[in-house]
Specification:
The protein is an alpha+beta fold. The chain has helices at 42-45, 48-62, 94-101, 106-125, 177-180, 187-203, 213-222, 228-231, 237-246, 258-284, 291-303, 310-323, 329-334, 337-356, 363-374, 381-418, 435-448, 452-466, 473-512, 516-530, 537-549, and strands spanning 5-6, 9-18, 21-28, 35-40, 72-78, 81-87, 92-93, 128-129, 138-140, 146-148, 155-156.
Length: 561
């Protein structure tokens, strides 16, 4: 049954719900202003950990004053109900917009992302990491203003409260790799989530998907996503590259902060507008010098707001120069708008040709550039090094450069073989060159979805089969390295299991000694952290059994999931 009042607020209707409580549209007794009231559900309010997290959300919102963040009004306790009142945003969530429109145009996506950047900058400047940025936490007003909400799992810099090493907090589809690995989130973790949101807005799908949250989390940690342009070929390359950079696995490879990203997004729009203007002018150069030229000029004025466009500037300069002379046929020729627009188009096209033409590099320069790229962390750029520098270098002078280039090409080949397959299913036999490579990709698939024991068994068997086959020495070297990595991951998983086993034993001992409240906190924490981890369900079930066998000593209901 829904409440009719919470504190000094009259409840009008329920407008939302989530893991931490329900949200109601309400009116205060002393005003007709509509507000949103978030109430921690009674079952969660009986657990101290959830109350503390709810209060932390309030503390985070109290620090933030920004037009793109929902404003906190006040908070209080009404009986067993913890609540806070905040700004009511009439409109819809970004998730609702995405479900209705499926795909959002790239300019609108950048406009929304720019406003989110402003919200994130304010939060980060206040020392707060959101940690759960997703479409359902972004509200859109009818005027198009974006407001960030729900700081329920926010993290304050330099504090460890409510953060457990190895714990995973956030929403799987938009979670950064460092959060997926249980590491501490930072500013660039929020930027990764924003990149995932932009990806979903533009393509209509998240970067990674799967049948379980664990599968999605594993892909964030180890998987490769398809570039947005694979689904939207007309997407500007600058937008595609920006999203891919935001989705880099390592935080330092992303943008340094929200302000830099915001300025970068603004620059993208300016550059694309200018490129569109140039293409329009170039297209109009063969048209009648009447209305089409005027339309192109007007578009130039609109794109640059109050600033004169390139055609206007060139026209004024040419006219000023010719005005100093005596006039004549040449002056009349250059005084024609159509002629000036044609010249501008030729200048633009010439510039494009100049910057895109292949520049002749010396063999040493080709080697140096290829080696420099391969000195970076493995990634798609390695393929560019092979395609643009190393292979052409061998074609030009294999006799001189083969000994130095061959080890670099081997690195690229090893990376190509060992990187996880795209998508959620293993490659078909036609997608690789040999049966041994197909088995390797299948083992990588099982490692990618978190089935480490099966991946380890397959890699060990494949490593034995490849032994002694000189033709497959390179593949065996790759398989051996991957086997070592998988075994290290298995050791880490064993450490987790040992840690959980110790925690359960400690809880059981506390319960036997009469400290049921402390034991229940341990069991609840295990369920909170590992409830959706399919590889830890045995421990979760033991924690649930503990809660069921040892009711709250204060006689309150079970607060577990």
């Amino acid at each position: 049954m829904e409440p009719t009042r919470i504190g000094p607020y009259q409840i009008l209707e329920k407008i939302g719900s989530g893991g931490m409580g329900n949200v109601y549209l309400a009116k205060p007794d002393d005003s007709n202003r509509e507000v949103a009231v978030k109430v921690l559900t009674a079952s969660l309010a009986r657990e101290s950990g959830f109350v503390e997290r709810f209060n932390r959300e309030i503390d985070a919102m109290r620090k933030l004053k920004n037009p793109h963040i929902v404003e906190l009004y006040e908070n209080g306790v009404d009986g067993e109900n913890y609540y806070y009142a905040m700004e009511y945003v009439a409109g819809e969530t970004l998730l609702a917009l995405m479900r209705r429109d499926k795909r959002i145009p790239w300019k609108r996506t950048i406009e929304i992302a720019g406003q989110v950047c402003q919200a994130l900058k304010a939060a980060h400047d206040a020392g707060i990491i959101h940690r759960d940025l997703k479409p359902s936490n972004l509200l859109l007003t009818p005027e198009g203003v974006v407001k960030l909400t729900d700081f329920g799992v926010a993290q304050v810099f330099a504090t460890n409260r409510l953060t457990v090493t190895g714990g995973i907090i956030g929403t799987a589809e938009y979670m950064s790799p460092e959060q997926a690995q249980g590491r501490r989130a930072g500013k660039q973790s929020d930027l990764y989530s924003l990149g995932a949101v932009m990806y979903a807005m533009i393509t209509g799908r998240t970067p990674f998907s799967g049948s379980t949250a664990v599968e999605v989390i594993q892909k964030h940690k180890f998987g490769l996503f398809d570039r947005p342009r694979l689904y939207i070929p007309e997407l500007p390359e600058r937008v595609d590259e920006t999203i891919c950079r935001l989705l880099e696995k390592e935080p330092e490879k992303r943008f340094p902060d929200a302000l830099v990203l915001h300025r970068h997004l603004e620059q993208i729009v300016r550059l694309e507008d200018f490129a569109t203007l140039g293409a329009t002018l170039a297209g109009d150069s063969t048209a009648d010098p009447g209305a089409p030229t005027v339309a192109a000029t007007e578009r130039g004025r609109s794109a640059s707001h109050a600033h004169p466009g390139p055609a206007t500037i060139m026209q004024k300069l040419m006219r000023a120069e010719l005005a100093e002379g005596q006039g004549g046929p040449l002056a009349a020729f250059f005084n024609n708008t159509f002629v000036l627009v044609t010249l501008l188009a030729l200048v633009i096209l010439g510039g494009i040709w100049w910057f895109q033409r292949p520049h002749k590099l010396t063999p040493q320069q080709m080697f140096d550039q290829g080696a420099a790229i391969l000195a970076q962390d493995p990634g798609p750029e390695w393929f560019r090094a092979r395609r643009e520098f190393l292979d052409p270098l061998l074609e030009r002078d294999a006799e001189t450069w083969n000994d130095r280039v061959a080890p670099l090409l081997k690195k690229v080949d090893l990376y190509e073989l060992s990187r996880p397959a795209r998508g959620s299913r293993p490659l078909k036999s036609g997608g690789v060159k040999s049966e041994s490579e197909r088995q390797l990709q299948l083992a990588l698939y099982y490692r990618q979805i978190g089935d480490l024991p099966r991946a380890e068994r397959m890699l060990a068997a494949l490593n034995l089969l490849l032994a002694g086959d000189e033709r497959q020495a390179r593949l065996r070297e790759t398989t051996g390295r991957l086997l070592e990595e998988t075994r290290r991951q298995l050791v880490a998983a064993d450490d987790r299991d040992e840690w959980l086993k110790t925690a359960l034993e400690r809880a059981a001992a506390l319960a036997r000694d009469g400290s049921v409240g402390q034991a229940r906190e341990i069991w609840s924490s295990i369920i909170e952290l590992y409830g959706e981890d399919t590889t830890a369900q045995d421990f979760v079930r033991l924690a649930e059994d503990g809660l069921e066998a040892h009711p709250d000593p204060r006689g309150k209901a079970n607060g577990s999931r």
